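Running this now, will post back.
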Amino acid sequence: MAGDTLTSSEYIKHHLTNLTFGQHPDGSWGMAHNAAEAKAMGFWAIHVDTMFWSIGLGVLFIYFFSKAAKTATTGVPTGMQNFVEWLVDFIDDSVRGSFSARNALVAPLALTIFVWIFLQNLMDLVPVDLIPWISGLLGIHFMKVVPSTDPNATFGMAIGVFLLVLFYSIKIKGVGGFVGELTLQPFSSKNPLVNALFIPINFVLEFVSLIAKPISLALRLFGNMYAGEMIFILIAIMYNAGLILGLFGGVLQLGWAIFHILIITLQAFIFMTLTIVYLDMAHNEH
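Update: finished.
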């Protein structure tokens, strides 16, 4: 695809445009054929490629882990069983080190978040032209294969974590305790009048801190993966700029792919760790 008649800017725009389904300005429903049509569909448009790849990778995760659980043996373990057991132990150690309360949901949630985000990020190592080229043969205009480069996906996961934080904050501390955390700290006074004056100041500071949790979760993952995908796309353009630049691009792509493995794993780990920490904060009094 890098060698098609697309200019460099058109090539980049094509690879960064989602396959979007929504309502056209004339009232009909269908797929967008360009970025302008996708933008015109508004908020309720669906990024079909993000949904397809994220759900597909989730199903893949469930299939392999359930298969490993069903075939687990106390004898000589298979390679898959060894890997799953190692990963479960790793997540369990992470939860024990960061979560001081008791909640049977946290460890499975942490495992799901880490593996699911890792698989989404791992799609960044697929050659940038391969799947879009196959999709083009099938008549599909756009195909982004890395769900975590779509802010809709990262914000969706972050909002899910945020709702759990709110739920456990209210469940453990009660409505009064949760409201007290937002209004009675960090500034307080023994004088009731002065303390009342501190309440709006405390609320602004604590509310900003609360809202920053899902925003930082979503934007950190999106920003790192989007930048990594952009670098792969820019390197791919070099293949169409002559033999010397093409060979140099191949070396760059190999080096960036090896380094990107660290970024892929680290971003999944950070999202998981912060989720555990935020849930721990929700379970404990300030």
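The chain has one domain: 8-283. More later if anyone needs it.
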